[in-house]
Structure formats: structure tokens, C-alpha cells
Design a protein that fits this description.
rod-shaped, mainly beta, 486 residues
Length: 486
């Protein structure tokens, strides 16, 4: 038996190659690797590979360099070759600043410097050319060329420097007007630069005016600074004035602080009272302290007490006796023993010129006095003084006719009222030889123009006699007078 088969043998003198790149556009970015291969031939099928004239004999060839690459494949004398051009694209240029230092609480702009047609993507998600950062850490940005899609990343680190740690103990400082407020922050930081709002550079400061003051302390190494503020205020010192030292009457006095009645004020008197005013009735030195917060002022007043003057008119003897002012001129009324008081006298409601504590009494009537010490209410007192002059007279018991002077006549001496007055002279035979109805008349020892003889003559005087009761009674007296010849 015979069988037959047929085969067709094809002989080719060259192999047809097609080099493939792992990147379809046959380009790579700087720093990347590209894999070249011929997918239609396998070493397992007996093919041998030669890249770049024997530089490599593997099915795949890696490169990161631009240029023309050749491949030779051979099997049983059949050969084939191919070549491919590879392009290497430069990475986009991106520059971030060196590591940055910022002060706590500050922020900083991180700027990325790139060419055109480059897109940015920060690790914060931002896509702008600059971002603001305030937190410590690493900040990176990816720059991608929009044409080649090549990318490059850069990064920077931000470190945060602490601020100088100080503060004012109180936000508000209060002092009294006229005092100075000490401005000082704690703690005091060595090796630091101090600057106050008023230009001072010392660690401590002071002010005598109200306002807002700040202190800035800077670390000279990091240039980080911290500023704190304090308000200085001044309290008005209370104005305390009790007035000048004074003298009061025994009835008392209201002592009051002469200032606005602010509810914030507190008062403390030397009497331990805490009201704005007190009532005093005794002599002494009185002290008050007025406070407004920590500010205070004080004043002292000396108070003297005068008693209401007392009148002694009612104690005068002239209230009990009835002097005869026609005969007595030495009566004195004393209103008070103190001559330093002020006295105003009235006699029968008429103002007297007398200003002393006593007055001479020359006549009957109402004597009134007003006494004042300039402090207490004026004291008024009066006394009514009566005058009683008893009818008191005398007549001589002898006269010398022709003698000049008193011995040469006969008359009545004394205070005989003229009303109903009569003087009768009789000789021894009862004959009326002289009569008069005026107590001032004089008998010169004549009768009918002739000298009477030397003898004893009888006289009779009729008059109104004053009684202490104030009445008068008609009375007669009889006596004798001897007429002698010179």
C-alpha cells in the first residue's frame, strides 16, 4: 500500500520585524525607563535577539536614553532587523523655597516657580502657583507638563518657632490720679528685645496718663514677636472738704462731706460712723476719710461749742428796790459777766449807745438787752425799774438878816413837789408875815418890805408826800426859825 502527502516549503531570506515600545508614542520622561520588544518572535521558538549590535540579547530591552535603537533577530540563517527612535522629554522645572521657618500664629506664602503649560497639584489639594501655609509640616507640589505629561515633584518643610511667652497679669491697671502706674509683663525674658507703644525699650515702663499701652517682645534669633496690651486707668481722688474750723451752738451741727454724693464712695469718720454726714454736739477734732476704690482723701475740722448766753438782769438788786434817781447816780445793770459778748441795750424801747455788758441806770423805765455770741440764737431779756424818791427836805432853824449867802435867807431844801405846796411863816402873835407856793422861793426876813425883829418865827409847810406805793398824800409840817440881826 502506498500513501502520499504534500507539504509546501517557503523560504524567506529575511524576517519582517516591528519593534514595539512600552510607550505608544515612543517617548519617555527624563528619569523614566522604556521597554522595547518584538512581540511576534519568541526566544522559546529558537529566535535569537541582538539589541544595539550585541549590547543585549534578551527579548526585551530597557532604556532611559533618547536615540535610535536597532534589533536583529535570527533563526536558522533567516534574519531580520528593525530600528526605532526613542525620545526623552525633559521634566518640568519647579523650584520651591528652602525649608521655611515661621512664627506661631503666622502664615506664609509658598510660591512654585514653573514654565508655561505646566499644571500643579499640591499635597493640600490646591492647584495654584502659590499656597498659604500656617501649620508645621511638609508641603509638596507635583508639576506636570501638559504636553509631555512629564511630572516632577518638589517639597519644602515648614517649622514653627514659638513666640516669646509673656503677658500682663491684669488687662486693666488702675491707680489714683497723681500716682504712676507701673507697666510690667511677666516673666521678664532675657536676650529679648522690648518695645513699648511709647517708644521705650526697657523691660519695665510707667505712665501717669490713662490709655491703652502695648508691649512687643521680639526674639532676636527667630524675629518672632508677641504683643500684649494693657489698659491704664486713673481714678479721681475724692475731693473732701469739711470746711474751716468752726464754732457751733450747743444745739449741734451737721457735718457733711462737700462732694458729689456718689454711691461708689465710702465714708469713715473718727466717730466710726460711715454715713456721708454726721451730727455733732460736743467739741472736738472730727476726721473723715472718703474712699473710691483704692483711692482716698481725708479732711479734719475742729469744732468748738458755745453755750447760749444767759441774762442776769433778773438777778439785779434794782428789781427789788426802788431807788431815787434824783439823789442816787451809782446804779449799774449787768446783763452778763462775759464782756466779750455782743450787747444791744434799749431804754424804754429807745436804742442806747451802750454796747458793753453793763449799763448805768439814771432813770426809771424798761431796760431791755439783746445778747449774742455770734453763734447761738440771740437772747432777749428786760427788767422794769421803778424810781421812788421819798419827800425829804429840811429848813434852816436860823437865819441872819442882811447876811449874804444861804445864812442870810430862809428856804426849803430838798425834793418837795410843787403841786399843792405852800410855805407860811407866822410871828409869835400868829400873824402871817410870809407865804409862798413855790418851793424855790426864799424869805429874806422882811415883812411888808421891812426887816422883822430878831425873834423866833413859826413856819408851816404843806406838801404832797411821795409814798412807795406810788401815790402822794397831802401832808403838813410845822417848825420854827430864829431870825438874828447881823
Amino acid at each position: 500500500c502506498v500513501a502520499r502527502d504534500t507539504a509546501v516549503a517557503s523560504i524567506s531570506s529575511s524576517l519582517s520585524l516591528n519593534i514595539k515600545s512600552s510607550d505608544a508614542d515612543k517617548s519617555l520622561c527624563q528619569g523614566e525607563k522604556l521597554t522595547l520588544s518584538e512581540p511576534n518572535f519568541k526566544a522559546s521558538d529558537g529566535y535569537t535577539f541582538s539589541w544595539q549590535n550585541g549590547a543585549a540579547s534578551t527579548e526585551h530591552f530597557e532604556t532611559n536614553t533618547a536615540g535610535k535603537y536597532t534589533l536583529l533577530i535570527e533563526k536558522n540563517g533567516c534574519k531580520g532587523s528593525a530600528e526605532i527612535d526613542i525620545t526623552v522629554n525633559a521634566l518640568p522645572t519647579i523650584v520651591l523655597p528652602d525649608n521655611l521657618n515661621i512664627c506661631n500664629g503666622d502664615s506664609i506664602a509658598i510660591n512654585a516657580s514653573v514654565e508655561n503649560n505646566v499644571a500643579l497639584l499640591w499635597n493640600t489639594g490646591n492647584t495654584s502657583t502659590s499656597i498659604f501655609a500656617k501649620n508645621e509640616g511638609k508641603y509638596s507640589v507635583l508639576a506636570t507638563n501638559n504636553i509631555t505629561q512629564c511630572s516632577q515633584r518638589d517639597s519644602t518643610n515648614i517649622s514653627i518657632n514659638p513666640l516669646p511667652n509673656f503677658h500682663f497679669t491684669n488687662d486693666t491697671l488702675v491707680a489714683c490720679n497723681g500716682d504712676a502706674i507701673k507697666l510690667e509683663a511677666t516673666p521678664i525674658l532675657n536676650n529679648s528685645n522690648y518695645l513699648w507703644s511709647n517708644g521705650a525699650t526697657s523691660t519695665q515702663n510707667s505712665t501717669t496718663t490713662a490709655g491703652i499701652f502695648w508691649l512687643q517682645v521680639t526674639n532676636p534669633l527667630t524675629q518672632c514677636f508677641h504683643r500684649d496690651t494693657v489698659f491704664a486707668d486713673f481714678t479721681t481722688i475724692p475731693e473732701v472738704h469739711l470746711g474751716s474750723d468752726t464754732t457751733i451752738c450747743e444745739k449741734g451741727l451737721d457735718l457733711s462731706v462737700a462732694n458729689p454724693n456718689k454711691s461708689a464712695y465710702s465714708y469713715l469718720w473718727s466717730t466710726k460712723q460711715s454715713s456721708r454726714s454726721i451730727y455733732v454736739t460736743t467739741e472736738g477734732s472730727y476726721f473723715v476719710k472718703v474712699s473710691l476704690g483704692t483711692c482716698s482723701a481725708a479732711d479734719t475740722i475742729v469744732v468748738k461749742v458755745k453755750s447760749t448766753p444767759q441774762s442776769t438782769l433778773k438777778n439785779s438788786d434794782l428789781g427789788d428796790i426802788t431807788p431815787c434817781f434824783e439823789m442816787e447816780r451809782n446804779h449799774i445793770l449787768v446783763a452778763n459777766d462775759d464782756p466779750s459778748l455782743n450787747y444791744t441795750w434799749f431804754i424804754n424801747d429807745e436804742l442806747s449807745i451802750e454796747k458793753s455788758n453793763s449799763i448805768a441806770v439814771f432813770r426809771a423805765g424798761k431796760y431791755e438787752v439783746f445778747i449774742s455770741n455770734g453763734i447761738c440764737p440771740m437772747v432777749k431779756d428786760n427788767i422794769k425799774i421803778r424810781s421812788f424818791c421819798p419827800t425829804n427836805f429840811y429848813v434852816p432853824n436860823a437865819m441872819i438878816y442882811g447876811r449874804s449867802g444861804e445864812n442870810g435867807s430862809f428856804k426849803v431844801y430838798g425834793n418837795v413837789p410843787s403841786d399843792q405846796y405852800s410855805l407860811l411863816v407866822f410871828n409869835r402873835w400868829g400873824e402871817l408875815i410870809f407865804e409862798s407856793y413855790n418851793p424855790n422861793d426864799v424869805w429874806n426876813g422882811t415883812y411888808n418890805g421891812q426887816q422883822v425883829q430878831q425873834d423866833v418865827y413859826v413856819w408851816k409847810i404843806t406838801y404832797l408826800e411821795n409814798k412807795i406805793s406810788g401815790h402822794q398824800m397831802l401832808t403838813s409840817k410845822i417848825g420854827h426859825v430864829t431870825v438874828l440881826n447881823d
